[in-house]
Amino acid sequence: MHDLIIIGAGPAGITASVYAARKRLNTLVISPDIGGQAAWSGDIENYTGYQFISGPELAAKFEEHMRKFDIQLKENEFVVDLNKSGEIITVKTNKGEYQAKAVIVASGKRTKELSIPGEKEYKNKGLSYCATCDGPLFFDKSVAVIGGGNSALDAAAQLVRIAKEIYIINISSALTGDEIIQESMRNNNKVKIYNDTRVLAVLGGKMVTGIKILRQNKEELLPVEGVFVEIGLLPNTDFAGILEKNESNEIIVNANNETSVEGIFAAGDVTNVPEKQIIIAAGEGSKACLGVFHYLSRHKFNS
Amino acid sequence: MAKHVVIYSTPTCPYCIRAKQFLKENNINFEDIDVTQDHAQAEIMIEKSGQMGVPVLDIEGDIIVGFDRDKIKTALGI
User: Fold this and answer.
1) Residue among B7, B1, B2 nearest B44 (CA)
2) Are strands A191-194 and A165-169 parallel, antiparallel or unpaired?
3) What is the pLDDT, as a whole number, of residue A303?
């Protein structure tokens, strides 16, 4: 049995694992990937110590730091169920079952889908959820970014260096991302911002050829070869039925990162902590691990 | 004999980095094609795989889209 199982290996999970290793806890990390959303981010200019670093580079540094320690890692594995019976917490994955005295849920968030016709058919055929990854394939092409928040603006900012023209398709009446990126997008003549506009369908043959939009109550056809979906995120909490969540399905934690179940902690974007930032997730991960350490040392386990 | 492995990738894609790391760990030689630098090769990749996502691995005609460890192992026979 492990002292601690950490679910997820994004900034929160990795930071927790580094703290756990330094506290000599017998730790297992389970995650489908490494780096989490940080690995998919574009340019990061607000992580202290780095005036500028790209998402993949920062994620690689996180991973390097984790691998410096002898931490057991199950990669390519995702959790399907979380349960507690007596003092033992059981984590069931698509490949096995593991037990621990304490758990930190740091499973983060995933991108929300549009749920419109054509979305599934054209995924990876012009439609993408990752401008960082797939953006470079749209050299000199017309593309649409769906969304109006920070992740949409981040995607657009990456695409201006590559694509011929970029349409930002925003369902609300104004953009909501950081003012500094909003301004640079508004002032870029490759970028056209369509507010109050909905996407109705993704169209194409073998690959995407356009989108059908509803702009100021009029249906239009917008010819684009790329569609980047950036309409927000959903917490990865499907497996966490036993934990209390808020209306957005985020795990509710207190200031010590404790959830509604004793021995189960949570950290980062999957929780109801205000503001989702890499630096906040990392900080929360360390806090959760220190909480676990105190919990394990004051709690008498029978086994 | 070792199979000829081609990987179509972009420098910024995390799964491309992981896939290449995986090949290196298993001592597999591969040809790395950066599709952001070579637009003709990007078209070839799209034609081969029928899609635009990276990475794409071509293991002597076995086309694998994404970093799928198990499929790569099967194709390589390791």
Assistant:
1) B7
2) parallel
3) 56
Q: Which of A43, A133, A196, A238 is catalytic?
A: A133
Given the DSSP bridges, would you call strands A79-85 and A88-93 parallel, antiparallel or unpaired? antiparallel
Out of A33, A81, A134, A178, the active site residue is A134
A152 touching B, CB under 8 A? no
Residue A77 forms contact with B (CB below 8 Å): no
Superfamily of domain A2-110+233-298: FAD/NAD(P)-binding domain (3.50.50.60)
A134: annotated active-site residue: yes
Instruction: For chains A and B, count residue pairs whose Cβ atoms are closer than 8 Å.
Output: 60
Of residues A124, A99, A97, the one with CA closest to residue A204: A124
Question: What ipTM was estimated for this complex?
Answer: 0.74
What pLDDT, on the 0 to 100 scale, is given for residue B70? 86
Give the start-to-end residue ranges of the domains of chain A: 2-110+233-298, 127-229
Q: Are A293 and A6 in contact (CB under 8 A)?
A: no
Q: Does B41 touch chain A (CB under 8 A)?
A: no
User: Consecutive sets of 10 residues in chain A, 303 residues long: mean pLDDT of each?
Assistant: 97 98 97 89 86 88 94 94 96 97 97 94 92 86 96 93 96 92 95 97 95 95 97 94 96 98 98 93 98 94 69
